[in-house]
Amino acid sequence: MKVKHVIFSIVAVVLFSSCATMFNGPTEKVLFNAAIPKDKPATLIVDDMVYYNITFPCIVSVDRGFASSVATLKVDGYKSSSVLIKKTFNYTSLLNILTGGGFLVGFGVDAASGSMMKLKHTSYDFYVEKE
After folding, report:
1. Which structural domain range is residue 30 located in?
2. Model confidence at 86: pLDDT above 90
3. Rounded to 10 degrees, what is the CA torsion of 24, 119, 28, 109?
């Protein structure tokens, strides 16, 4: 009987650890918008990812992680514009406490994947002005 309880406990820890990673994933979709003509080719840079020839509005996946992200818009004939994407604690990772002794593993996985954090906002507007 004790063996069944131990096995059940191990299975529960494995299944319910890293809750934020399982429920939310390491990235989050962000909507970007800018008031530029559709015929102007725009380049959007989010951290190290570069997206060419985009039109607005556009949706891009942004890593959750601990560090803030920066999104920069570049359009010919316009000054570059940047927005800071701030992150906050993702309360879903607190569900790891329910796993008993496995919560350290869950928090570790959530921290390593960046899922312990979430984006403060999921929509940003670029304010652009002509050069």
Report:
1. 2-126
2. yes
3. -40
Residue 83 lies in a domain: yes
Alpha helices (H) along the chain: 2-16, 19-24, 103-113
Identity of the amino acid at 115? S
Query: Considering the domain boundaries, does residue 81 fall inside one?
Result: yes
| 33-48 confidence digits (pLDDT tens) | 999 988 888 999 999 8
66 or 44: which leads in pLDDT: 44
Give me the number of domains the chain comprises: 1
Q: Output the CA–CA distances (angstroms, integers) from residue 43 to 28, 31, 91, 112, 117, in the order listed.
A: 20, 15, 34, 30, 27
Residue 131 within a domain: no
DSSP state letter for 130: B
pLDDT at residue 90, as a whole number: 77
C-alpha to C-alpha distance for 67 and 102, rounded to whole angstroms? 26
Distance from the first to the final alpha carbon of the chain: 76
pTM value is 0.74
In angstroms, rounded to a whole number, what is the distance separating the alpha carbons of residues 93 and 118? Answer: 10
